[in-house]
Design goal:
Chain lengths: 86, 455
């Protein structure tokens, strides 16, 4: 599964488990408008750490905090590139 | 109250009933008074580390050395060599008493004395007793053990009242007698009741079988001990009329299970700690304790709730920590137990250790509170909640769960989902475990409590 696919799957799974109504996810959707709250994001980040083996929020590189769904996905894509030897 | 264990035994010199029942030997008050099991006089005024393989040998050494040694340090089993060396250094140990034949104490500057489970010599007329410090090690942390100083009188302050009553009591305990909970039962036995001591290699099931055959009437342990005992079908092996729980939070589901399996037993849960002593006993079969305990002036201990934690003032509190900076008692005599409580209706409920709180984005969560809810689920045998670090909220809650053998769920996934839904209906959102793992067993510490250091 692509990184984007893994992330979207977790958005849906966590929204379902947390009884949240998930908005339609587009790249320019603000994270605040996804219908998810900070607890949901905390769980998503932890689940993605288990899935993808990385947690960009705890990495020493100074990534800018994402504001939109697109930025959230690119953060993970970029972090994965940094950790995968080319 | 007696000054020494020998005086206490002497009060019942002609009572022929057994006091200590070991796997291959029985000791009555008379046997303990007439015989010595080690050369105690050689240790007069010494600081002595008691480190034996069997609990019986420690019990006999305590009878011989109380009032003779300056300090008795009780070594629970499963200490590392490093911890023993640390304890010996902090306790300024002069001598080691052991039942092992290896010869060397492995501790620098100390001599070794043997204690035997068979009488070693006739007991000489005792010299005037000195005040012996009894030092217990607390479990919990894996580092340097904490050495808690008691006296025979602080240790036995909660006992006198029930001892020597007409009803004959035969105790068993899941605690090791070298820890506070077990030592309480040993002292009861020496004060007129009786105790079945486990052998060093006996499994819990073997011990229960022997204790059951001997007809034990009273038995004590931690809630974790009892959960394990129910897994090994303790109800088929023993038929006690009194069950005592202490050392950890007691939840209603465990009380209810015990009531089902031991319908005729009186269920008592007590609050006690090595530092604070025994504070109170709850006998109504309900978790928590009634608020009148805070007003009860005739109880042995005064209790109050300060900043949400239970504080206790009693004669059972320890005197001090050896080598420690921190005083045990506050100037007003109260010991802060560090156990957080919450009041609902007219009852207080334990919610967890104050120093174990998980902070989920500013919301406090006690792992014990989460565990208590999970344990109410019919498919759950045991649960452990812990912290998982999280970059967004600082931490989230995760839980490991042992399912009951008779779990109705078809798959682990079904069980997990069902337990999550169960938690969601009963806990605030941030307290619901973000992760649940099904495991086959959860580790206990050597002291019989849920092991929270090895997550």
């Amino acid at each position: 599964m692509s990184v984007r696919g893994a992330i979207f799957a977790q958005f849906q799974e966590v929204a379902h488990r947390q009884d949240r109504c998930l908005s339609v996810l587009r790249d320019d959707t603000a994270l605040n408008d996804t219908g998810l709250d900070s607890l949901c994001f905390a769980i998503i980040v932890a689940r993605l750490e288990d899935d993808l083996g990385i947690d960009p929020f705890s990495m020493p590189e100074d990534f800018p905090f994402p504001g939109t769904v697109g930025e959230f996905v690119s953060l993970y894509e970029h972090a994965l590139e940094c950790t995968t030897p080319s | 109250m007696y000054d020494t264990l020998l005086e206490c035994l002497g009060a019942a010199r002609y009572d022929r009933r057994p006091r200590l029942i070991a796997p291959d030997c029985v000791y009555g008050a008379w046997d303990l008074l007439e015989n010595a099991f080690l050369d105690a006089e050689a240790l007069r005024g010494c600081s002595v580390l008691v480190r034996t393989r069997t609990q019986t040998a420690t019990a006999l050494a305590l009878v011989d050395l109380d009032g003779v040694a300056r300090r008795l340090i009780l070594c629970p089993p499963e200490l590392t060599r490093r911890q023993i060396l640390d304890a010996a250094a902090i306790g300024e140990v002069d001598a080691v008493v052991t039942d092992e034949s290896s010869g060397s104490s492995q501790i620098p500057q100390t001599s070794v004395y043997a204690v035997s489970e068979r009488p070693a010599m006739a007991r000489a007329a005792p010299l005037p007793p000195i005040n012996t410090e009894w030092v217990l090690m607390t479990s919990g942390t894996t580092g340097t053990p904490k050495l808690v100083v008691h006296s025979l009188s602080s240790l036995s302050s909660a006992i006198g009242r029930n001892a020597n009553e007409a009803d004959e009591r035969l105790w068993g305990t899941f605690y090791d007698i070298r820890r506070y909970g077990g030592l309480q039962i040993l002292l009861r036995a020496l004060a007129g009741e009786a105790l079945v001591l486990p052998g060093p290699d006996e499994t819990q099931a073997q011990f229960l079988q022997r204790a059951g055959a001997l007809g034990i009437t009273h038995i004590s342990g931690t809630p974790s001990h009892w959960r394990c005992a129910l897994v090994c079908k303790a109800e088929r092996l023993i038929g006690p009329r009194y069950i005592r729980l202490s050392g950890e939070i007691v939840d209603q589901s465990l009380l209810d299970k015990l009531k089902t399996f031991f319908p005729s037993a009186m269920l008592v849960h007590a609050f006690a700690s090595t530092e604070a002593g025994v504070a109170f006993e709850v006998t109504d079969g309900q978790e928590g304790f009634p608020e009148e305990f805070l007003r009860d002036s005739h109880a042995e201990a005064d209790i109050r709730v300060e900043n949400g934690t239970l504080c206790v003032r009693s004669n059972g509190a320890a005197a001090r920590i050896l080598g420690g900076e921190r005083a045990i008692r506050r100037p007003n005599g109260f010991v802060d137990t560090g156990d957080a409580v919450e009041q609902r209706d007219h009852r207080f409920y334990f919610v967890g250790r104050k120093d174990r709180t998980i902070n989920v984005g500013g919301n406090k969560v006690h792992p014990e509170e989460v565990e208590a809810v999970i344990a109410k689920h019919p498919d759950v045998e045991m649960a452990r909640a812990s912290m998982r670090r999280n970059p967004i909220l600082g931490a989230v809650v995760e839980a490991e769960i042992v399912l009951r053998a008779v779990s109705k769920a078809d798959t682990e996934g079904d069980a997990t989902q069902d337990i999550l839904d169960f938690c969601k209906a009963r806990l605030d959102r941030h307290k619901v475990p973000a992760f649940i793992r099904i495991v086959t067993a959860l580790p206990l510490t050597a002291g019989g409590k849920m092991d929270r250091n090895h997550v």
